Every structure is written in structure tokens, then in C-alpha cells.
């Protein structure tokens, strides 16, 4: 249940250009005018700047700089993604909380964001470094009506979304390394982790996590990542507003996801392959059992890596590392 305070912020946010009268707020929230006034004073203590004019009403002039569910929602132009945003200063992992919420019936499009993660995770129990307020650490809860074997397509879809935002809004040249890395100048600046709960032919839910290094300097990374990780700040010499980037990602993700549901994976595949790292080249491949070199032929309709076995036969791989850093 949304608190009265959050509902009040929603009402004010939806009327950001105009004043909304105390009477209208009181009717919508079923609370007295003096209760509204008290809520406004509390919001001001939290850094909201609210203008109140007699006869006209209230409007928000400024949101607090600090990230919160409400500040991320302010001005967010999506229809379903991020209608519910849960923000925590510190979490073990946004994936863990998102799984808990999804099992408790959180709605499709719920977004979990953390200021820092103490146990951020990658694939196969890898660690994901998520230093405090330096990056975007967030997970989406999705309830897609697709078959479980199509879920890997969502990782590739998310990668094309990040590539689009990085190119269009940050002005860098991104490359997508199969299946889930975003590289700038051959260094990793973002990773995606898709996890799901499913039964034979039905997905219960997907938790899609994204970690993006935004305002890190080199010292914010552990030493072993210095030669292979990067951030938007390191690449552009600019400090980026995290809230603004989150909104751009949400809007672009929602649009791309809708396109995917309407038109299928082929549009995403085409976009992915345009930015795909080392497509057509000879790559190093590592699976649980084997290591070998083979050509990267492209990605299959189901998101798998198309390549050749050590014996030279064409094959599809669903889980592997390519061109890892040794
Ligand atoms: C990934 O795994 O790249 C997926 C990362 C997903 C992180 C998000 S953050 C929000 C959500 N909550 C979570 O707990 N996770 C998701 P993988 O391909 O396995 O890559 C992990 C490897 O990347 C590590 O083993 C390191 O070598 C490297 N690495 C770790 N932290 C990094 C960072 N901040 N930047 C670049 N590389 C990093």
C-alpha cells in the first residue's frame, strides 16, 4: 500500500507545471487541509521545495538531490516500468530483494535500486563491485508471457538498451560482448544478470539486474579491475546524474520491450549484432568442460552464441565465456 505521503508526492508530481488546490488534494487523499499542510512541512524537511500560494494551491519546485523512489519517479515518462520503485541506500544485492518481492507478488515492472550493494553478484557466483553512489545498481521484476527458453533474449534486449543510452545520451561508442557485458574502449562498464523462476513452459517471473559504472574514478575499483573496468566518468571526464540516467534507461527499456513483444526478437537481434563485439572474428571460448578457439558466427534467434565446436561443427552455446581476461 502506498503511504499518504507517497500518494501526495504522486499527485504533486503529476501536476508539476500547475498548482493543485488544497481542496483537490484533500478530496483525493481523504484527509483534512491541516493534515496536508503538516505533510508539506515534512516533505520540506526532506529537501523538497514546495510553493504554496493562497487561492491557487501547491506545486513542487525542486526535488531533493538524494536518490529515492520518489525522486526517480519524478518526471519519469513510462507507462509500466518503474510505477513501483523501491530504493534502499544499502542492500546485499538488488537481485535478492527483487526475488523476495517477486515471490510476494510484486507487479510486473517493479524496479529495485540500491545506493550500494555489499554482495552484488554476477553470473556463476561472480562478484559484482557496487561502490556507494558511484553507479546504477538496479533490478527489474518482469512477468513476460514468453517461453522459459526465450528468457536469455531479455539479457540481449537489455544490452541493446544500455548500448542505445550510452551512445545517444552519454556520447560514447559502446560494444556488447556476448552475452551480457557492455564495453567502452574494450573495458567493461556494465553487466547484466537475468534470473528467472519458471515451470516447464511458463515463466513465473524474471529478475533482470543491471550494474553500470557511472562516476567511478580508478581508485573506486579494486586493483584487479583497473585494467579491465571503466566508468562513464573515466570515459567522458564528466560526472553524470544517476537519477537522470536511470530514467533514460527505464524509458528506453520499456519502449524496446514493447517492440520485442509486438515484433519478436529479430529486431533486437539486428540491433545487438550491430554493436556486437568481435562478431565474425576468431574468439576464445570457455565452457565448464572445455576451452577452444572458434569463429563468432552471430547470435541465434533464441539468443545463443553461434560458433563451432573444437571439431569444427556448427553449434549453439547458451552458457560460456568468450575472450575472458586471463
Ligand atoms: C555480470 O556478471 O556482468 C552481471 C553483473 C550484474 C550486476 C547487477 S547490479 C544490480 C544487480 N544486483 C546484483 O547483485 N547484480 C545485478 P559477469 O559476466 O559474471 O561478470 C562479473 C565479472 O565482472 C567479475 O567476475 C569481475 O571480473 C568483473 N566485475 C565485477 N565488478 C565489476 C564492475 N563494477 N565493473 C566491471 N567489471 C566488474
TrEMBL record:
Residues 69-261 form the BPL/LPL catalytic domain. It catalyses: biotin + L-lysyl-[protein] + ATP = N(6)-biotinyl-L-lysyl-[protein] + AMP + diphosphate + H(+). GO terms for molecular function: ATP binding; biotin--[biotin carboxyl-carrier protein] ligase activity; DNA binding; transferase activity. Keywords: ATP-binding, Biotin, DNA-binding, Ligase, Nucleotide-binding, Repressor, Transcription, Transcription regulation. GO terms for biological process: protein lipoylation; regulation of DNA-templated transcription. Biotin binds at residues 117, 121-123, 188. Residues 22-41 bind DNA. PANTHER family: BIOTIN PROTEIN LIGASE, BIOTIN--PROTEIN LIGASE. Acts both as a biotin--[acetyl-CoA-carboxylase] ligase and a repressor. This is Bifunctional ligase/repressor BirA. It comes from Oceanobacillus piezotolerans. The lineage of its organism: Bacteria, Bacillati, Bacillota, Bacilli, Bacillales.
